[in-house]
Design brief:
The protein has one domain (about 5-135): Rhodanese-like domain (Oxidized Rhodanese, domain 1). The chain has 5 helices and 9 strands. It is an alpha/beta fold and about 140 residues long.
Length: about 140
């Protein structure tokens, strides 16, 4: 089974403006030290993102991922989900798992940080590097 599709960060923002919910599947350490998407503000009607780890500390898979997702966003309500991770790989796996659980799910291919530049710094594309709103901590 596949998922609904891949979105650029700006296409993901447009999907959020249409009522989708952003689900950040990075780790707690990434949220705390690298930053998080700042979707909801006084200037828009977007929802706050959900934060559900795809992998736990040490890279251990979160076996309760779908259970935790269902508690925060029941599949029965029909809301579309947009999954985001560091570079776009975990979000694909999460979108596939969510689709198998009955959700309409998308993945942000460039992720939050994007790809490394020639010096190994993540400065190429991604949510953060494309100028979409971010803030520190969760």
């Amino acid at each position: 089974m596949s998922y609904a599709g891949d979105l650029s960060p700006h296409d993901a923002w447009a999907k959020l403006e249409q009522g989708a919910i952003l689900v950040d599947v990075r780790t707690e350490a990434e949220w705390a030290h690298i930053g998080i998407p700042a979707t909801a503000s006084a200037d828009n009607n977007l929802k706050d993102p959900l934060f559900i780890q795809w992998n736990l500390a040490g890279g251990v898979p979160n076996t309760r991922f779908i259970e935790e997702l269902a508690k925060q966003a029941p599949a029965a309500d029909g809301t579309e989900l947009v999954f985001l991770c560091r570079s776009g790989q975990r979000s694909i796996a999460a979108a596939i798992a969510a689709t198998q659980a009955g959700y309409t799910a998308y993945s942000v291919l460039e992720g939050f940080e994007g790809e490394p530049d020639r010096y190994g710094e993540r400065t190429v594309n991604g949510w953060k590097n494309r100028g979409l709103p971010t803030k520190l901590g969760n």
